[in-house]
Specification:
Helices cover 34% and strands 26% of the residues. It has 287 residues and is of the alpha+beta class. The strands form 4 sheets. It has a 5-stranded antiparallel sheet with strand order 4-5-10-6-7. Helix 9 packs antiparallel against helix 10 and helix 10 packs antiparallel against helix 11. The chain binds flavin-adenine dinucleotide. The site of flavin-adenine dinucleotide (FAD) has 27 residues, from strand 2, helix 6, helix 7 and strand 10.
């Protein structure tokens, strides 16, 4: 592997300037836990690596409407943050099931998103919380729902001159509960065969006002099971309804068979785990 030029950007503007000049030839290196493997396997061959660790993109900021997570925030940084644990427990749970401590210390939220793996563990909880992402270029910034970022395995709508700078999680009401479940071949240090995040909000009558069921590793991109969500919305929770929504989510999933799991197993486990996740929230109470 011919090693590329390595530039430590001391500001975001410097990183954006390099992206403007060099486009896809220049890649941000965050933790490097995906990128270095892709370079080793010649999937990617950038001529410039931009290190943004000195560009102050790892903060957590509370605004009136959302919690902003800096793109360079590490998985360990999420686990250590009490606000995230309290307000967005499904994201904190996904981080605790992510690899082991050495990888968690390096791996970042932005890397997990931009790598665009269908099995990325941090993406379903962020989509379940209706996350927006901020993409900056030297021409300006655009904000889009994370759910609209992915177009296929390893592919997204990021432009060659853009850098992901922030993830924004809208503040949810108290009557909201969410959970994350990951299934892998082992209990730890494993890539997901199926992962999912669910979130339910209840109105004052105890009916579901918002439902999110987000599935990973069962389609070319992380996906919302929108028909299953629609079955729940406006209804009171019951065992029958949870079972029906889980069956609907299974119908919506489009998994492939690969070395981690067969299509049939992934479909079966989608139904089992969606039902389990919804039941967990219903029993905890979304209020
Ligand atoms: C042993 C091991 C275990 C793992 N376990 C898990 C696991 O349990 N769950 C899981 O989901 N993943 C896992 N992974 C995959 C990987 O660790 C994650 O996807 C991680 O979040 C990638 O983050 P990173 O900071 O290392 O990204 P990098 O490898 O640095 O970058 C990944 C991609 O994102 C781009 N990028 C990074 N930051 C930005 C930015 N700000 N703007 C634009 N582009 C950017 C890079 O250019 C590159 O294309 C594992 C990997 C290894 C090696």
């Amino acid at each position: 592997m011919k090693f590329p030029e390595f530039i430590t950007a001391t500001s975001l503007d410097q990183g954006l300037e390099i992206k403007r000049e060099r486009g896809t030839e220049a890649r941000v290196i965050a933790g490097g836990t995906d990128l270095i493997l892709k370079m080793r396997d010649k999937v990617l061959s950038p001529s410039v690596l931009i290190d943004l660790r000195r560009a102050s993109l790892d903060g957590v900021t509370l605004s009136g409407e959302y919690l902003g997570l800096g793109a360079s925030l590490s998985v360990s940084g999420v686990i250590e943050n009490a606000d995230i644990a309290q307000m967005f427990p499904a994201l904190a749970a996904a981080c605790k099931e992510f690899a082991g401590p050495p990888i968690r210390n390096r791996a970042t939220l932005a890397g997990n998103i931009v790598n665009a793996s269908p099995a990325a563990d941090l993406v379903p909880p962020m989509i379940a919380y209706d996350a927006d992402i901020v993409l900056r270029s030297s021409a300006g910034e655009r904000i889009l729902p994370l759910a609209e970022f992915f177009v296929g395995p390893g592919q997204s709508v990021i432009e060659p001159d853009e850098i992901l700078t922030e993830i924004r999680l809208p503040l949810t009401s108290a009557a909201t509960a969410a959970t994350f479940i990951k299934l892998g071949q082992r209990r730890s240090m494993t890539i997901s065969q199926v992962n999912l995040a669910t979130r339910l909000s209840l109105d004052e009558q105890g009916k579901v006002s918002t439902a999110r069921i987000v599935l990973g590793a069962v389609a070319p991109v992380p996906m919302r099971a929108v028909a299953a969500e629609a079955m729940l919305t406006g209804e009171e929770l019951s065992e029958e309804l949870l079972g029906a929504a889980a069956r609907k989510a299974r119908e919506e999933a489009m998994p492939i068979s690969d070395f981690r799991a067969s299509r049939a197993y992934r479909l079966q486990m989608t139904e089992v785990l969606v039902r389990r996740a919804l039941a967990r929230i219903a029993h905890q109470g979304a209020g």
